[in-house]
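Typical record is below.
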Amino acid sequence: MRLTVLGCYAATPRTLTNPTSQVLQINNHMVLIDCGEGTQVELRRHKIKFSRINHIFISHLHGDHFFGLPGFISTMRLLGREKELHVYGPKGIKEAITLLLKLGDSWTNYPLLFHELSSKESELVFEDTKISVTTIPLDHRIYTNGFLFREKVGKRKLNIAATEEYGIDKAYYQNIKNGKDITLDNVEVIKNSELTFDPPKPKSYAFCSDTIYDESLASKIKDVDVLYHESTFLESEAELATKTKHATAMQAAKVAKAANVKTLVLGHYSTRYKSIELFKEEASTIFENVLLADDGKSFDF
């Protein structure tokens, strides 16, 4: 599982910082999460192929989280995209994007499918044989969701040495991989667990964008491997965080600790601070394993 941060600063773009956007690679999927201004430039800068992105998840309709989307969609048309592109986001996102395309007489020549969200309860929005994606309802100034990505349990790995020891023909290998026991010629049944290794433990990633501190959030992301939680402010501006419905680094750490996550990644920093290291220092007083997102930074989990 690899996370590439394209932008992780709050509000407006600057010469050296970008608003929220990130790419998650999980179980052979590559998804785009939020799409602030400059996303296309950062994708090119980090040599991420546009064509590999088939699913885009938008947390909410504040500009620093989706103003880059119309340009990305238009570029896909210019690059000759043919396969479907799925966009998941709050109700209204379809109207916003299609109006721009209509006024510019530049409708896509590939299937552009919108999945508009309005539920205030967690819901499954995407699932296939490899991953599932559910919403994480958040409390911000407008309707907002985070997203929880979970790998599905993979197939068991064949133990070649064991199959050879029992003299099992290769013709049965696929059945073994599918979890079946094997009956030998002497009617002895060999349990699948003796012929295979456990698959890797499925990984999980929770993306929690703009939100006020919410203790109940922990129960929705219990035991995830990686939590990205906004930390717009430091505790010295806790009152401002509450007023604007954002969170502090310390509050993000409290959520991570209560949820028993393995790793906390901080982001969505206000640019009022001289160093993002201050966020890690504050969060580390509550939660030990803290990483700092930064534009262009990649993490392998």
